[in-house]
Amino acid sequence: MKLPYAESHKIKMVENIRKSTREERIKWISEARYNLFNLKSEQVFIDLLTDSGTGAMSDRQWAEMMLGDESYAGASSYYKLKNAIQEITGFEYFLPTHQGRAAENVLFSVLVKKGDFIPGNSHFDTTKGHIEFRKATAVDCTIDEAFDTTKEHPFKGNIDLDKLEFVLDSNPREHIPMIVVTLTCNTAGGQPVSMQNLKEVKRLADQYKVPIVFDSARFAENAYFIKKREKGYENKSIREIVSEMFSYADAMTMSSKKDAIVNMGGFIAMRDPDLHREASTYNIMFEGFVTYGGMSGRDMNALAQGLYEGTEFNYLESRIGQVALLGKRMQEFGVPVLVPFGGHAIFVDAKKFLDHIPQEQYQAQTLAIELYLEGGVRGVEIGTLLADRDPVTRENRYPKLELLRLAVPRRVYTNNHMDYVATALGNVYERRHEIKRGLKIIEEAPILRHFTVELDRV
What we know:
- By secondary structure, the chain is α/β, with parallel strands linked by helices.
- The protein has 2 domains: 22-51 and 313-457, Aspartate Aminotransferase, domain 1, CATH 3.90.1150.10; 59-310, Aspartate Aminotransferase, domain 2, CATH 3.40.640.10.
- Helices cover 40% and strands 12% of the residues.
- The protein contains 16 helices and 14 strands.
- It has helices at residues 22-31, 59-66, 76-89, 100-111, 125-133, 161-170, 195-208, 219-229, 238-247, 273-286, 297-310, 313-332, 350-353, 363-375, 384-387, 415-430; strands at 46-47, 93-97, 117-120, 137-140, 179-182, 212-215, 251-255, 266-270, 345-349, 377-378, 380-382, 403-407, 439-443, 454-457.
- α6 (161-170) runs parallel beside α7 (195-208).
- The termini are far apart.
């Protein structure tokens, strides 16, 4: 009999969390203007809003915090992080930043200008925001299979090579500063990109002389899926796979709050010394000196240790196994979820779940509110709110997928918590036809509106 997966850690400290009443939650969500970002953390029982910065650090990471060198320039912590990045990714040059969107801000300040086109696989919200803020256009070249939540495909994060070549062929080279490949592809459901696809994208990029930048927040989870699903990689280690993945990129941005399992931090890494020199100017202006860049020495130490821990197979198997357990329990309740399950989250198909609510009433956000009212569980909408308005017409953009994302923090919750979440959503599914109305926007920001939007019942 095959042994089931077990967590590759044991618990050393716990944090108490409080269950609230439905009456309290009705009051709190109304005061939050139906925006789950506005809730106080103590008003949430199980928090699946994001896996970014919400993981539990290990004893070795905490030990590294005590060894942090807080020198303004040339700290030993900088060199410890530099060595870890070079060993794991192969990039010689890097700049620390305080988080992933800061890394994008610095790098895109060098590369992106008005009128540019940046093709990629379903750019995430901050990536698209940084592109559109600079009056450029993000072009989604994800394979069509990614937009069918019921279709089993091992690598739904793949870039469609015909779509990519069309963009490269129909625009002047000087207006395509890079191709962005997101690993794993969050907006498409935490779906991985195959090694074969990375090779083929690299071939096209070389043909058109366009650099490739990896959005690498969940690169280790992507490597795990390659090991488990792609022929020829089953006997390779995670770090061997990671090394090959990054060999097909010219630069990377990293939100270390995901696969490096820290609460804050990020970096940019690249091969080109000239790009490093240009980006350093913006890093100094926006983040800090080049050897700390918005991070304390203790945080750089914890990040370096987290990179090693996050690329261990046993850790990844237990982490991704817990996400899959949540997905399987939801399927038992009949809840429509995106398959195959992603690495960091389960994505619920709100279009199928609330098919009687129009998309213009924000189906996924409506579902997120109902799950919170049912069990105090906080998720996040990956749908029309996140898709924002068209920067030219200012009309709502209606994406093909309307998803409720339930992102599982790393090493934080037990499987009993996953069972609680699945049961709560199962209860909502049973009474789904009693949900008669969706939501309308009262107030919104001109860009990245989903973070601060104010809503009300229709």
